[in-house]
Structures are given as C-alpha cells and as structure tokens.
Amino acid sequence: MDQAEVLRILRELDRAGVEYVLIGATAMGVHGVVRGTEDVDLLLKATATNISRLRAALAAAYPGDPGVQKIRSDDLLGDYPAVRFGPADSDLYLDLLAKLGEFASFESVEAVTTVVEGVRVRVASPRTLYRLKAGTLWPFDQRHAAVPRRRFDVEEGV
C-alpha cells in the first residue's frame, strides 16, 4: 500500500471535515502494528452532509475520477451501508462503511485522534480493533484479533 496516497486521502478527509474512524489493518498500522492490506477501511458518520463532505474530499484526492460521484448517500444510508471505492489510477481500495451490522457505528466505536506525519487522523482504539475482529466467525479475523489484545493488553471479551 502506498503510504503517501493514504496520507493524502486522510489529509483531504480532515480538510473537508469528514467525520470518520479509521478501522482495519490501516488503523493497526497507525498504532504501530504492521499488517499487509490493500484497502483502507473507514467507518463514517451516517449523514447526507457527511457523505457529501466525503465526496468532496475524495474529489480533491483524486481529481477527475468519475467513481467519486458514484458514491451516493442513499447507498451508505440504506439497508446495506457499505461502498467500495477503487480510484481509477490506483490499486488501493477504500471500504466505506456507515455501520457494521448492529455491532458498530461511528457513534458507538471508541476512537482517538492522533497526528501522523502532520495529518490529523481519527483512528479506532486498540480495544475497538480487537472487538471488531474478535466477534466474527472467521478464523482469519479471530487470529488478527489476538494481535491488539496481546500488544495493548486488551482484556478478552471486552
């Protein structure tokens, strides 16, 4: 994954005032735990205004990319609130999520704001990252849940 590209996206999200929490492997990287990934997972505040800000931020990060305008509020505010955006000139994907089932939403996850190379980033806490993985049925996710649990001394079942 191109770190400069990810930082460019995060910078534009901050400039546009997008309310989000970085989750997944990229969030683990912010906490110092490196794990290979090809996507950036963002948990977004589910409002039409916030989705409009998201489109503005992505348009600034990827000028002229026609896929940006295909990100619709109706999709992210609907019954299946997830959109995958793959910029035309990149091999990076952004998984844009308004909620994860009944389990997690922007409002319900514990997050912290930190600065990465001069960019303000809202990132899920290690406890949240553990909870997001530990509660799934996938053995792959359960193995990855063990990393923040051990590294940050997160209590099991929290």
Keywords:
158 residues; alpha+beta; four-stranded mixed beta sheet; two-stranded antiparallel sheet; 6 helices; 8 strands; 22% strand
The largest β sheet comes out as: 4 strands, mixed
The portion of residues forming beta strands comes to 15-25%
Helix proportion of residues, in percent? 25-40%
Radius of gyration: 15 Å
Order of helices and strands: HEHEHHEEEEEEHH
**Low-pLDDT stretches:** none
Oligomer: single chain
Find the structural class using helix and strand composition: alpha+beta
Overall spatial form? globular
- Strand line-up across the major sheet: 1-2-4-3
- Give the N-terminus to C-terminus distance in angstroms: 31 Å
Give the rounded overall mean pLDDT. Answer: 86
Helix count from the secondary structure assignment: 6
Q: How many strands in all?
A: 8
Quick synopsis:
The protein is an alpha+beta fold and 158 residues long.
Please provide a written account of the structure.
This protein is α+β, with helices and mostly antiparallel strands and 158 residues long. The chain has 6 helices and 8 strands; from the N terminus they run H-E-H-E-H-H-E-E-E-E-E-E-H-H. The protein has helices at residues 3-16, 24-30, 48-61, 73-76, 126-134, 139-151; strands at residues 20-23, 39-44, 82-85, 93-97, 99-100, 104-105, 111-116, 119-124. Helix 1 (3-16) crosses helix 3 and helix 5 (126-134) runs antiparallel to helix 6.
